[in-house]
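User: Show me a protein chain along with its predicted structure.
Assistant: Here is one chain, sequence first, then structure tokens.
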Amino acid sequence: MKQRFLSGAVAALLCVGGAQAADKPVRFILVGDSTMASNSGYGDAFCARVNRANTCINLAKGGRSSSSFRAEGRWDEVQGLLKGAAAYRTTYVLIQFGHNDQPGKPGRSTDLKTEFPVNMARYVDEVKALDGLPVLVTPLTRRMFKDGVLENTLVPWADAIRATAKEKQVPLLDLNADSYAAVQAMGEAQADTFAVAPKPAAAPVAIGAGVEPQGAAKSAFDYTHLGARGAKYFAAMVERELKAAIPAVTAEFKPEGE
């Protein structure tokens, strides 16, 4: 009788514990560069789609690479947040780098073979160690066309992220492939409307592929950064990708059209 009572009590506690865990909100933390950051990327628009009961924190920063984000102490903030994860059912950390890891960006560029994959894998391992759920995101395409064909110089970095996700067995959002296909299909004229500012009469030369200054919010037309329309479009794309990769998060977002 005593044994049955104890078993029943344990079962009841487990049920209560499970119910309490289910009642906790989830949290999303965004880590990346300007294509995800406030005022120049899709991150804030993505956070706006998350249910009000949940938390979404956009820590992406313009001009940062997989190396400089950590070197500046920004990753320390992410780890500090993860140490307080008990209040959340799950903390998803979306990690997207590549643009500023490319060559020609002093203090930010990383070696594609020896540094970039190691940096991405380290982020994954450290999120897991703090009971978070890492989600790797391949870099958003630039919107630079040549003779009607969209260029994609980010493929090697996207490939490195795909390989890391496979090796580490973590969810992958292939934003590079999906955004490239979408922008190629819509064409240059529509893609230009995604920029921060209208396209001038004399279009700039491949600004997106050049050296991006660190920090400052974007206020002029280029082929990399996003205005409100572009941010909303690609935030919806990331939301769809996340729901496909992790179906359990579907209920954590606002209904379509809200």
